[in-house]
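Deliverable D5.2: sample structural annotation.
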Amino acid sequence: MVSCANGALTLRPGMRPIAGGEFAMGSERFYPEEAPVRRVCVAPFLMDEVPVTNAAFAAFVADTGYVTVAEIRLDPRDYPGMPPDMAGAGSTVFDNHHAPIDIRNPATWWVFREGAQWRHPLGPGSNLRGLDDHPVVHIACQDAETYARWAGKALPTEAEWEFAARGHLEGAEYAWGDELAPGGAMLANFWQGEFPYTNDLLDGWERTSPVRSFPANGYGLYDVTGNVWEWTSDWWSPAQGASGGPSCCSSQAGRADSDDRLRSCETGTGTRIPRRVIKGGSHLCAPNYCRRYRPAARHPQEIDTGTSHIGFRCVVRGAGA
């Protein structure tokens, strides 16, 4: 539990003040890793109104010359047993299907694409034309943390992220209330239809959407659910030893390590990769498969892996936080 003590906070452009306080974190109505509901206290902080955009990340790269994890070829010695075709610089991209497929195997809709990275979100030949105000994707945890330090910020803890995403609506299922689409209104970018082959596009977007395309929550934060998953600073730990239900986000079936400091998953190559908590769901979460477009939702993500639907936003904490 974190202290609720006040800290000195100076407002920053593009960030919203979150007063902090005690709240009921988690859910017992969806996936086992979200339980149990428990009382948690967070200190006041500032949070980015929107996920970090392609334009903002480009400014960071222009200033620092930073090279993301997806742009660096892997050293096979670090990944014993890795197939040679996975060693190239690249990232994982959602591969659209237009006919029913076996949803028990996420590897059927994820493809490693050499050359896929934040500038080329769908792989070679794709670019960021018209996407300046979309969330940056293909971001590994190291990339997000490096950007945050450059900006004088940090990644949020899981508790900070969930408290802010709830927007004063403690106990509500969604960031806007208890109904997914009140009156038929689409209030976030998620998958409508039968995932992963029929997207009805009721929200208007097949992949990422521009930030601020949907209403802000009670704290004035946009895209806290849907659009892209967001990194947190917390290591993964299933709340009750459960590995969770099916998810759109990973092609790897993970299990928690017994070491509290190094939660990791089996990659299938004999290599163990630490995992952090990601929050908020993405445009690939669907009612028929992965109902994680909710503040309480959480998922483990390997720290060295970004995908075409993982981004981040940052926080600033007060001196007493």
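Annotation notes: The chain is about 10% helix and 15% strand. Confidence is low (pLDDT under 50) at residues 240-244, 251-270.
The annotation will be released with the project's public dataset once the embargo ends.
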